């Protein structure tokens, strides 16, 4: 299902940031994220990527400033309304293991009250490539299979803002490529995709914008090849890197030694 034109709105962060234990994790972020943007959030372990995603989704992470979608302050929206606007695939897949895969994916469709949850679930399972797992219990799945179920749940929620926390961390090469294509496809539909990503090559090849969070609290937002240039990456990670381009045009960011 493609978002209605009225759902193609920018997401504006105004002096925004996540808070953990009454401490702000980054300097205030102010940025406008246009419809169709696939934004990669990168930065070292513990810098606050997951917290920022959770804060934007207002899913139990405290925040300061505002995150507004089409002028609507998400922090003031009712939970049901927010579930129609924002879906979150968290890193910690704390789902009840006794649920069947199709029931868990159905939670996504139910959260946003889609008209035909059955069809929505079927389509989400197919897009995530896991239709064959529909009647398996979640607890019996492998780590990568669980990650794809969580992706299908988010697809079934069918929101204009899709937030993914390290969506490919448990996936094999073929599934990584499939998820990369799904992310681009969501962007092409005009959705806003925001993903925390450790694989900087993935960020280079998949994202239209990258936000690099520095350990010092600063952030850099821009075109992927600019933000992931050698100097910025060294400042953030302490590793010397180069961006290589394959004959087929894929970019690979690799350490120099
Ligand atoms: N539930 C929590 N309660 C309190 N502090 C937390 C909680 N979750 C994370 N933190 C702290 O917030 C900071 C940012 O953590 P966060 O998980 O957002 O970082 P990250 O950049 O996503 O890390 P990683 O790359 O390792 O996943 C860390 O110092 C972490 O210890």
TrEMBL record:
This is Iron complex transport system ATP-binding protein. It comes from Leucobacter komagatae. Signal peptide: none annotated. It comes from the Bacteria. Keywords: ATP-binding, Nucleotide-binding. GO terms for molecular function: ATP binding; ATP hydrolysis activity. Residues 11-240 form the ABC transporter domain. The keyword Zinc does not apply. Gene3D superfamilies: P-loop containing nucleotide triphosphate hydrolases (3.40.50.300). PROSITE patterns: ABC_TRANSPORTER_1 (PS00211), ABC_TRANSPORTER_2 (PS50893). InterPro entries: AAA+_ATPase, ABC_transporter-like_ATP-bd, ABC_transporter-like_CS, P-loop_NTPase.
